[in-house]
Design brief:
The longest helix is centred in the N-terminal third of the chain and has 25 residues, at about 30-55. This protein has helices spanning about 30-55, 75-80, 100, 110, 135, 140-160, 175-185, 195-205, 205-220, 235-255, and strands spanning about 60-65, 90-95, 120-125, 165-170, 225-230. Helix 1 runs parallel beside helix 10 (about 235-255) and helix 2 (about 75-80) packs across helix 10. With about 270 residues, the protein is of the alpha/beta class. The model has no long low-confidence stretch (mean pLDDT about 95). Strands 2-3-1-4-5 form a 5-stranded parallel beta sheet, sandwiched between helices. It binds adenosine-5'-triphosphate and magnesium ion (MG). Adenosine-5'-triphosphate binds near residues 69, 74, 95, 133 and 134.
Length: about 270
Amino acid sequence: MDKCWIELDKDSDPDVLLKLSGDKTPGFNGGEEEADEASRQLREELIGLQDRLFAEQKHSLLVVLQAMDTGGKDGAIRKVFSGVNPQGVLVARFEAPSKQELARDYLWRVHHKVPAKGEIVVFNRSHYEDVLVVRVNELVPAKTWKKRYAHLRNFEQMLVDEGTTILKFYLHIDAQEQRERLQARLDEPAKNWKFDEHDLEQRKHWKEYMRAFRDAIVQTHQKDAPWFVIPANRKWFRDYAMLTIIVEALRKLDPQFPKPAFDPAAIEVV
Ligand code: ATP
Ligand code: MG
């Protein structure tokens, strides 16, 4: 598999993401048409693999999606998973926690949404908000969120040890791209419903967000629960890169239709 993502390591510049253009298309030399054709083929393969994953009921796949506002999480979910059997693919959205959720530890609301065997679950935002929005907006003291990287590593390792494959995606748009996308939400009537003034407030903290993302990624990137930084200004590259990575992970799991415990040839339906 060509490496269609950006890798960050512990030595990377604190502002590595601030400086990263969302226009990049690592590991891919073609343009939109080639990417769309490759995505079409990958999607067909994904549909077959998901069918077998669901039938086999042995493995589960958790896809964590994080991005800045307008980063394209909703679009990626729609495009990457279009055509799969909705019975086996679920999306869990994590919005600002309710009073009940805030009264408990931050992983409480997350844990019961993880995939069952045979399922793919996509987290549209996730437990990572608790080291991103929470850090940037100082919703808890620094000493509290700093401890969370270790919790997140351990929580995810536990899920992996118990049979879940985890893929974490950060869809990276740059500040200029966000400006255009927010403006489009004002200019295009069909997009007005998506405009949220709160996003403008958060945009003022772009630099802090980029640092928070960088730290979350380097602190919690593990062999068994890797992060993929996907430049996402170009939606066709974003979809292609996600499909490439997800399909490759499912190929490795190699799910099989279960063998019947009976001889089908020996039974006649009358
Ligand atoms: P879009 O990118 O299309 O705007 P969205 O993912 O922002 O979609 P919204 O419902 O607009 O969806 O926003 C969800 C909000 O919930 C985000 O602002 C996010 O930061 C916030 N949120 C999620 N988890 C937490 C958390 N643990 N603490 C505080 N805020 C959170
Ligand atoms: Mg929003």
